[in-house]
Structure formats: structure tokens, C-alpha cells
């Protein structure tokens, strides 16, 4: 089972020993994306929008788009941000949104407020 490492220069480079995404048998696994440069701003909508843009760039590097996403995982620093994150996240899925879970966690990398990962299929 060959795997293909996917990388987009338009999204942040990994900050550890992982790939932005890995494609296996027509399924793309996108690592959790963050917007460290916006975390200190306190603007959860802007941070979420940038995270989704990063995901879009990675999907594009694999020849896919948001319509190919079948599963998403959202990790929040504060569940009180759920509605704001949901508003921005939802704007990227105009029809047939993917399966998803949203959880609050104690801490995220680079002290960001939101991290999102997705799985997409060809």
C-alpha cells in the first residue's frame, strides 16, 4: 500500500515529525491545522478562517476540495467559541457537510484557540 506525502507551500510547514497530509488508496488524511500567527489576536473567527484556508490549500495540493471532505475533527480551547467556529467552518461546506466531532481540550499547540483536521476521499 503506497502512500503519498502531500505538501502545500501555502500552508504552514509541520512543526514536528509529521506530514501536512498523507494520501493512501484515494483517501487523504490532513493533519490538524492551526493559525498560530492569529492566536494572540483573540479573534476566533479570523483564526478559524485561516485554519480552513490552510486546509483548503492542502486539499488543493492533493487535487481535492472541501466537497471531498468526509470527516472533520475540531479541537477548541474554549467550547464557548463553538458558535463562532461553527459559523466560519460551515461557510466552507455549502452542501452535504462531512461527519464531525467538536471537543474542548486543555491546551493546543502554540497556544492557539482552534485546531482542525480532516479526512477527504477522491
Automatic annotation (TrEMBL):
PANTHER family: 2-IMINOBUTANOATE/2-IMINOPROPANOATE DEAMINASE RIDA (PTHR11803), PROTEIN HMF1-RELATED (PTHR11803:SF58). One of its GO terms (cellular component) is cytosol. This is RidA family protein. SUPFAM superfamilies: YjgF-like. Belongs to the RutC family. It comes from the Bacteria. One of its GO terms (molecular function) is deaminase activity.
Amino acid at each position: 500500500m503506497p502512500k503519498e506525502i502531500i505538501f502545500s507551500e501555502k500552508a504552514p510547514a509541520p512543526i514536528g515529525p509529521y506530514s501536512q497530509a498523507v494520501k493512501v488508496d484515494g483517501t487523504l488524511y490532513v493533519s490538524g491545522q492551526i493559525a498560530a500567527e492569529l492566536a494572540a489576536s483573540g479573534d476566533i473567527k479570523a483564526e478559524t478562517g485561516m485554519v480552513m484556508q490552510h486546509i483548503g490549500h492542502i486539499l488543493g495540493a492533493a487535487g481535492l476540495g472541501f466537497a471531498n471532505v468526509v470527516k472533520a475533527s475540531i479541537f477548541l480551547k474554549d467550547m464557548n467559541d463553538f458558535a463562532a467556529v461553527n459559523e466560519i467552518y460551515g461557510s466552507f461546506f455549502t452542501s452535504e457537510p462531512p461527519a464531525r466531532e467538536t471537543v474542548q481540550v486543555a491546551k493546543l499547540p502554540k497556544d492557539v484557540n482552534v485546531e482542525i483536521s480532516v479526512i477527504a476521499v477522491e
